[in-house]
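Handoff note, outgoing to incoming analyst
You'll be picking up this chain. Sequence as last confirmed:
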Amino acid sequence: GTIKKIKNDKIKKNRYFDYRNLYELEKYTLKKSTSLFIEKFYETVRQITSDNKNYNVALTGGFDSRTIYAILNKIGKIIKGYSFGLKDALNIKIPLEISRKLGINYTPIYLNCEYEENFKYWYEQTALLSDGYLGERANYPYAYKKLREYSGISVNGNWGSEAIRPFQNFNSLVSKLIYDINNSGKKILEFRKFYNEYKKKSLIKEEILNKYSYQIEEHLIDWFKYVEGFPKEKRIHMYLYFENERKFFANEIQTERKYCTNRYPYYDDDIVKLLFKSPFSGVNKTSFKKDFYSIYKSQRIYYEILKRYSPEYLNFTTDHGYPPKA
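Most recent structure output, in case you need it:
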């Protein structure tokens, strides 16, 4: 975090928080970190749901949202579950099964028919509300407009799997390009090589791309100065945490804010600090190493949370093809 002051055409920067310091935190044992995380996560979920009576709570086919739902169920909060997807999607079928067997108040938000017919409108809304950053995830503001009829607050598992599991794949969060630039000894030349190819196929006018190319290069130079001294794999993880959370999830939340306040406990400050101290979290694992076992074992924390607070949720499969297991 940085405070910038502008005076007499000069910018003075004062950094009051530096993510790089998180990598120097004392590492706990697996046993200690697991115990502390379960308790801290419970307390975090309790705190962010202490100011209202009703809450929308994501109940999907994954692990993250299920842990939140289990804790709120244990606390006794009045909650309404939701998820969205096509009618036959696992993100709909799995929570439907859970809700029927456990008697949960759950409403699926289908992305067929009505959403398809109005997709252009929601696509434009997403682009505008995210200041042009997002052209995808138009289903989020669409869903939250419906959810606000029940509550103006939504709680979900954003950032859970990104923080807990080892980073494995190139996607919308981290591109193959930033990976190649990171590994190159000539980073700006690597970027220019890509940028020249991009200009040939981009719909943006070449003079506009040329006008701003130097600013992108300056940003890259500043970024790699910021992470100088860290190993290549750590730099990719730092990019995921420091750049993509801000540009992707933060903009997603911005598009939703018009309709609903979104809260996500996995990115709470205390939770993040604890994850940096925990051997089970993704930050302390090797990125881009195709190791199914390490991914599977990193998910044990979900099992421990569910076992402690609502073990009945352990009986249902996830969209990974298996239920939470030790």
